[in-house]
Amino acid sequence: MERELWSELYAIVVRLDNLWTNGFFRVGEIVMVFLWAVVHDRPISWACQPANWVGRAPPVLPSQSTMSRRLRTAKVERLFAAVECQLGGDPRRWWLQRIDSKPLPVGHSSKDPQAKLGYATKNIMRGYKLHVIWGGGPLPSVWTIQPMNVADTVAARTLITQLPGEGYVVGDCQYDSNRLHAATAPDHQLIAPPQRTGKALGHRRHHPGRIRALQLLKKPFGRALIYCRGQIERDFSGLTSFAAGLSPLPSWVRRLHRVRLWVQAKLLINAIRLLRIQNSYKTAPA
Q1: How many C-beta atoms lie closer than 10 Å to residue 160's C-beta?
Q2: Each residue of 147-159: pLDDT tens digit?
Q3: What is the radius of gyration, based on Cα positions, of the chain?
Q4: 134 C-beta neighbours (distance < 10 Å), count
Q5: Please, which pLDDT band fits residue 203 given cuts at 50, 70 and 90?
Q6: Closest Cα to residue 175, out of 198, 192, 154?
Q7: What is the pLDDT of residues 211-246, one digit of tens each?
Q8: Would you list the DSSP string of 221-255?
Q9: Residue 136: which residues within 8 A CB-CB, separation 6 or more?
């Protein structure tokens, strides 16, 4: 199955590559060698060896040092963004979005200086976090990777300002923040249950968006929105529950730029898997 997912990604990358050049290897070739390593959960040096391609190896493979240099270029970043746009579609078509985060811990003895200590699932861990706003598509509408010590509400302020379109953004109680409501664009309404249930608002000033959200939660429509928030838990579950999915960060994925690239590749692989499932339902006999 992993090679089938890679083959479908290969077709998309070749179509979007546009023959961009940056040295001896095309950008698409660099991306596909990297995806070959990610889909097999192996380091890049493993994918640079022809013996590990089982008859699929290109005529010439880049070296480990070439991959390390080229993966950090803007052209590789643009090609990954183009593939992401191709698979995810327009996020403005979703009027209901869900916001949440997923911890990506590393070992406490890791030498990675960018992996920080922070709270994750009520425990203190060291590593990174994947922050997403996810609609109904195979890819998040917007996402980012931050060190573990960056609070979810701080990362959410950046994400929510990048979110296009209009509609509702639903999160759990940790997103019930006046500052986050203030950062939300006028075209979006953030819905999050209060952190302290049964407590009054008190005498402090509150953002009108937060007051509007709390009033909406008293109505059936608001409670239905909170019920729909559970879909993002299933999205995270699907992202991590198949062979080539997002497992705990391996020992060779350290530093923020490597973690971001690894997670982006895992998101693309998962998107291909979800689209395959959707197409199988459409072609199944009634």
Answers
A1: 23
A2: 999 999 999 999 9
A3: 21
A4: 22
A5: low
A6: 192
A7: 899 899 999 999 999 999 999 999 999 999 998 999
A8: HHHHHHHHTTHHHHHHHHHHSSTTS--SPPTT--S
A9: 94, 96, 231
